[in-house]
Design brief:
The chain is built from 5 helices and 8 strands; from the N terminus they run E-H-E-E-H-E-H-E-H-E-E-H-E. With 209 residues, it is α/β, with parallel strands linked by helices. Pfam families: NAD_binding_10 (PF13460).
């Protein structure tokens, strides 16, 4: 498959690119800075803003799927996720691409309060709540689109795989706390969804308890 990845130079995006190549796919890696992408066989680089509809339309034509795994390292209010999603949806509709996978995370929608004590009480209120306010808008835009979308909500990122049970749910039950997932696990899950056409029009919440 030909995959167009937004946020390809980020933590998930880099691992996703590596795993996609290993599985035999070709990747177009969106980035704002070309030097952030290592060019190897199977990888093309598209330099531009993720919220630039004209750039996206030109760059993503001819791809089989679009994957959005944008990140942000500041805590202030943002519209990055909703602005980029608006441009992505418009560009996909104009180029005829149907399959869209977007990574949001724990804190979006009904997953709020389900990331374990430390995330719920410290990380979310102090560091990530503003980005998730915009991710809620982002998710609503995706759900209203006519695309073949999947919204992925991974548990809080950890460097090492946890020992807890691996869980995937599309309806979040009361009391469920998913405390960890690695970026490699997220990348693998993304590719499983693309290749297997899994979780169409669903929002799986996944990770380790």
């Amino acid at each position: 498959m030909r995959l167009f990845i937004l946020g390809a130079s980020g933590g998930v995006g880099q691992r996703l690119t590596e795993q996609a190549l290993a599985r035999g796919h070709d990747v177009t890696a969106q980035t704002r800075t070309a030097a952030n992408i290592t060019v190897v066989q199977g990888v093309s680089v598209a330099v531009g803003r993720p919220d630039d509809e004209i750039f996206l339309k030109k760059s993503m034509a001819g791809h089989d799927a679009v994957i959005v795994c944008l990140g942000l390292d500041r805590t202030s209010k943002t519209t990055l996720f909703s602005d980029s999603t608006r441009a992505v949806i418009a560009a996909m509709q104009q180029t005829g691409i149907r399959r869209l996978i977007v990574v949001t995370g724990v804190g979006a929608g009904e997953t709020k309060g389900h990331g374990g004590w430390f995330y719920n009480r410290i990380i979310f209120p102090l560091f990530t709540r503003n980005r998730y306010a915009d991710k809620d808008i982002q998710e609503a835009m995706i759900e209203r689109s006519d695309l073949d979308w999947t919204i992925l909500r991974p548990a809080p990122f950890k460097a090492q795989a946890g020992q807890g049970e691996w869980t995937v749910v599309t309806q979040v039950p009361p009391g469920l706390q998913l405390k960890s997932v690695t970026r490699d696990e997220v990348a693998s899950f993304i590719l499983d969804c693309v290749e297997g056409h899994r979780f169409l029009h669903q929002k799986p919440f996944f990770g380790r308890s």
